[in-house]
Amino acid sequence: MTEEPVADADDACAWHERLGWAFGLTADDPADRAAALARLAEARRTVAGALDRYNEMLWLTRPLGTDEQYREPAVLQAHGVWKRAQNRSLPDGLWGGPAGAELATWPGLPYALLFLEWEARYPQEWTQHAKAWGTKERFIRYLALADHDEAVRAKLTDLIEIVVHRAYRCKDREYVRIARAVDSADLRDRLARAAGSDSPWARCHAGYVLRLLDRPDLPNTLHVWHSWLADPPSTVL
Questions:
Q1: Whole-angstrom distance, CA of residue 136 vs CA of residue 83
Q2: Which long-range contacts (CB under 8 A, 24 or more apart) does 178-186 make?
Q3: What mean pLDDT comes out for the span 203-223?
Q4: Tell me, what's the pLDDT at 59?
Q5: End-to-end CA distance of the chain
Q6: What is the pLDDT of residues 129-150, one digit of tens each?
Q7: Is 148 helix (H, G, I), strand (E, B) or coil?
Q8: Between the CA of residue 31 and those of 26, 35, 117, what are the distances in Å?
């Protein structure tokens, strides 16, 4: 199944009704996280079942031909059930969100931030239950383009700090984009502390982010990252 847009353009109340339970995924209490994970597992089973039914209807109606098939009421109904199920699950319920400045006023923004925070704070649970590297990358890139209020900037600053303190994970290099977008004295202080810590990963990763903040002309490419890994400054490692 591909990551197609499914998120409705509706208000915050509708989003909360569908996905409010997901905030338990980042709870400090393991029992709250377990309950949210169970809710997510059920939501994903519902999505899988609805997709199976949709594919079954496509198979049964194939003699009609493609044009007629997609106008068949049973196919349309099955498709609608599948899309509604996706809207109540993660990461499916986030697909199709706006990019750029529109993201700042999108009712789904808190859930996009939640998805990234979950991956940052509980990476193994995220990987086991909702791994979606492409979704992670897209939202990091989208968030780097929007003009955020102070609360969102603070959340993004916290995310960067969490990420540089852990072992590198797929697409973490993309957080440089957000660091450049929310650059501040507070962020640089946090990165400097991480770069001077006892953790080899924190020293390496935070040092890299600081370097690219100081060098806005330097592209955040794999070549630049690999060059840094091969020969980081002695003041960082």
A1: 21
A2: 178/140, 178/143, 178/144, 179/209, 179/212, 179/213, 180/144, 180/212, 180/213, 180/216, 181/143, 181/144, 181/145, 181/156, 182/148, 182/153, 182/156, 182/157, 183/213, 184/153, 184/157, 186/157
A3: 95
A4: 95
A5: 43
A6: 999 999 999 999 999 988 899 9
A7: coil
A8: 11, 6, 18
